[in-house]
Amino acid sequence: MRDNMTDSFEWMVKEHGKAIFNYIFSLVRQKELSEDLYQEVLVSAYLAFHTIKEPARLRSWLFTIARNKCKDYWRKENKTKQFWKEEVYSYSATVEAPPLPEEEFLHKDSVRKMAESVKTLPEIYQSAIFLYYFKDLTLLEISTKSNIPISTVKTRMKRGKEHLRPKLQAFAQ
């Protein structure tokens, strides 16, 4: 047995669904992503549908939900991109010729100094940085090994890098 709210919601989707999808697509320009965001909009709209007081504002209400879902996506995407762009240090190694003995010594010395700097960090940051940069574990592997959520690993990496940055800049000078 169907209730009036379900019928009203279905009518709303039939009436405004295509316009909402086209609006989302115009913002993100990716079909699959638009479909995902459209589904999120419909779920949010359905869950809050009973709260709408003015049916005349239904269309603008749906567009607001769609715009906010897109903003949430972009905000999340920008945080992810910014996190991955951060670097604690960078260097370039030549593949063509083997390193000179003095270069190898300097490299080992800088790695040793970096390891010493990492050891000065608080333990919660130290382990994430050490596992990532010295043991070449992925964030997911660190999360699994440490039995903590991946978001916590990312936060600890970010904060550990913030603590390390001034110390490592001293090496570059």
Concise structural overview:
With 173 residues, the chain is mainly alpha-helical. The chain contains seven helices and no strands.
General description of the model:
It is a single chain. The chain is mostly helical. The chain folds into two domains: 4-85, Rna Polymerase Sigma Factor, Chain: A (Orthogonal Bundle), CATH 1.10.1740.10; 101-172, Winged helix-like DNA-binding domain superfamily/Winged helix DNA-binding domain (Arc Repressor Mutant, subunit A), CATH 1.10.10. It has helices at residues 4-28, 31-48, 58-85, 101-119, 123-133, 139-146, 150-172. Helix 2 packs across helix 3 and helix 6 crosses helix 7. The longest helix has 28 residues, at 58-85. The radius of gyration is 25 Å and the shape is elongated.
Salient structural properties:
single chain, 173 residues, mainly alpha, Arc Repressor Mutant, subunit A, 2 domains, 7 helices, 0% strand, elongated, RNA_pol_sigma-70-like, RNA_pol_sigma_r3/r4-like, transcription
CATH class of the largest domain: Mainly Alpha
Rg over alpha carbons: 25 Å
* Biggest beta-sheet profile: none
- The number of domains is 2
Q: Could you name the CATH topology of the largest domain?
A: Rna Polymerase Sigma Factor, Chain: A
Helical segment tally? 7
Q: What's the total number of strands? A: 0
Described by the principal axes of the CA atoms, the overall outline is elongated
CATH architecture of the largest domain: Orthogonal Bundle
Assembly level: single chain
What's the end-to-end separation, in Å?
75 Å
Domain RNA polymerase sigma factor 70 region 4 type: 116-164
Family: Belongs to the sigma-70 factor family. ECF subfamily.
InterPro entries: RNA_pol_sigma-70-like (IPR039425), RNA_pol_sigma-70_dom (IPR014284), RNA_pol_sigma70_r2 (IPR007627), RNA_pol_sigma70_r4_t2 (IPR013249), RNA_pol_sigma_r2 (IPR013325), RNA_pol_sigma_r3/r4-like (IPR013324), WH-like_DNA-bd_sf (IPR036388)
Protein name: RNA polymerase sigma factor
